[in-house]
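=== Structure Prediction Worksheet ===
Name of assembly: unnamed complex
Input type: mixed (protein and possibly other molecules)
Chain count: two
Listed entries:
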Amino acid sequence: TVGAVAVDVHGNVASATSTGGILNKMEGRVGDTPCVGCGGYADNRVGAVSTTGYGEAIMKVTLARLILFHMEQGQSAEAASDSALAYMKSRVEGLGGVVTVDPQGHWAARFSSAQMCWAAAQEDVLHYGVYAGEHLTENI
Amino acid sequence: MLPVVVVHGGAGHCPKERSESAKKGVCAAARAGYEVLRGGGGSMDAVVEAVTQLENNSLFNAGCGSVLNIKGDVEMDALVMDGQTLASGAVAAVRNIANPVQLSRLVMDKTSHVCLTAGGAQQFAESMGVPLVQQESLITDYARMRWRQNLAPEANPVECQMGKMG
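=== Predicted Assembly ===
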């Protein structure tokens, strides 16, 4: 699965997610990706999220909307992402990852799976990583 | 606010021999989205551009490079959402489409619906002038190898794809 979130100069947020699904899935199986609130969500009043991981688990906890709910309660993008991923892991044993932004441009790339490729571009600096704790930067 | 684009290339197990290429892929996608924002483009344009780049990169499980279903076919899903209006568009179980994310944006922009699936989504694509592509053009040798590996009765595709706990 791949995805992106963004904030533009006007403070508008957006989310996009795309996937081939799960390996050797049943014909006709649809996961979280095309479901609003699961594979992604965007609301200028709170932020935007794109998710990846085990779709059936993500759908059970409506992961993208759950993150934005935590942000509505005052958590940062990073804390809200971690809270929701931890909830999914403990409640339904689901692993995954997310990219999250708020309308002010604060962002997070968090995951509970073994790895997640991610990158962010802001203020002419590129941030990226794959492994837990890895955060590399270079100028654009 | 500070314009920003953040992308992911999927959670789960990323083999070491593919991780450097995957890093380059997500970095290129983030740069492409950021260029849209730097040029005054909107956040929706930026995320669609970034995801299109990732769909076109055969390293990732979307577009070209998608994993295969049990019959060895590609079936893809995509979603876009606009934070200003809460408008959204999605496609599910689509085949023969190189960039499902662009088709999902057309669903958002050109219909009053949220999600189109399978044959209906394909008919919509044709009516919008979106070119159809051969299934084979979306299938990589790597995807075919993983499909074969997971045909065995004792195979665990989810474990294979998601890996162990982080």
